[in-house]
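hiii so um. not sure if this is the right channel but i have a protein structure encoded as tokens and i wanna go backwards to a sequence. like what aa goes where. can anyone help
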């Protein structure tokens, strides 16, 4: 069974909900759980970090629970990179969650089945549990280029492609003229996110994971129905504001892994592009409304 790595910080209620959802999975009692608890960045977070640590010390029911309490604040990116690297180097594969990811009862089954099914398929770099709330129908499961970050899994061979050098990744995307493809045909500014990481305006490990896999021409498996719901877009997180745009309904039926072509899904890709366009339009409308409200001008 694949070990689970859970990264937590200062949100005790979110952490509790994440664990409670995992315990509804059929395979949780057979799974080893590793909890990485980052130290407080400042005194303001000390009490909530302490509360999280008190809770995770009481987690039971899993095959085993190992807690890693950081003595200094690493930040999300360094914590995940270090934790994932240590687990995959020791066990060869990993399932990764953060403290705001509520999972379907079928999440662990899907992850473990897919990890086993594609363990020796070199082009498959990772497995993903979340899928955007697109309006178009999706295949039961499908592949897209790159990698993703909301409830995911990989192998040692897959994580070996991770490159933390954002400038190198951006330069390669430009050199190979892949910026538009990387941005899902210009529908979402992932390359701008990568530029922000380089400039220090964000500390995204995820965009570097996506770029690393994308440049290596690797694929990630997505479910046609989401097995992860991110509850962190409630303005409680360090890196997320308040939004419901990415809220996905959890699937109450399992994902069947059969007859999936190991190639990018045109249907899945087009659905993502459409969703990104709609999301950008929605963001623009909200921005215009906010500006008009500030200017006390009517907007319709």
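sure thing!! here u go:
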């Amino acid at each position: 069974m694949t070990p689970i790595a859970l990264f937590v910080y200062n949100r005790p209620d979110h952490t509790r909900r994440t664990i409670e959802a995992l315990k509804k999975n059929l395979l949780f009692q057979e799974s080893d759980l590793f909890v990485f608890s980052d130290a407080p960045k400042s005194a303001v977070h000390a009490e909530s970090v302490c509360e999280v640590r008190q809770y995770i010390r009481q987690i039971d029911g899993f095959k085993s629970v190992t807690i890693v309490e950081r003595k200094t604040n690493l930040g999300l990116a360094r914590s995940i990179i270090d934790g994932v690297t240590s687990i995959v180097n020791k066990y060869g594969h990993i399932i990764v969650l953060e403290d705001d990811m509520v999972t379907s009862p079928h999440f662990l089954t899907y992850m473990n089945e897919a990890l086993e099914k594609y363990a020796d398929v070199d082009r498959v770099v990772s497995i993903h549990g979340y899928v955007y709330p697109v309006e178009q129908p999706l295949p039961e499961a499908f592949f897209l280029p790159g990698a993703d970050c909301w409830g995911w899994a990989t192998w040692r061979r897959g994580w070996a492609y991770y490159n933390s050098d954002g400038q190198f990744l951006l330069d390669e995307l430009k050199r190979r003229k892949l910026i538009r493809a990387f941005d899902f045909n210009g529908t979402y500014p992932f390359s701008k996110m990568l530029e922000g990481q380089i400039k220090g305006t964000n500390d995204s490990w995820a965009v570097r994971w996506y770029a690393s896999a994308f440049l290596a021409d690797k694929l990630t498996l997505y479910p046609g129905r989401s097995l992860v719901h991110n509850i962190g877009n409630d303005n409680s997180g360090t890196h997320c504001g308040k939004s419901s745009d990415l809220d996905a309904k959890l699937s109450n039926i399992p994902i069947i892994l059969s007859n999936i072509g190991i190639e990018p899904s045109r249907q899945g890709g087009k659905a993502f592009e459409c969703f990104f366009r709609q999301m950008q339009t929605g963001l623009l409308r909200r921005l215009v409304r906010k500006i008009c409200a500030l200017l006390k001008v009517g907007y319709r």
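oh and Residues 4-161+216-295 form a domain with the Spore Coat Polysaccharide Biosynthesis Protein SpsA; Chain A fold (CATH 3.90.550.10).
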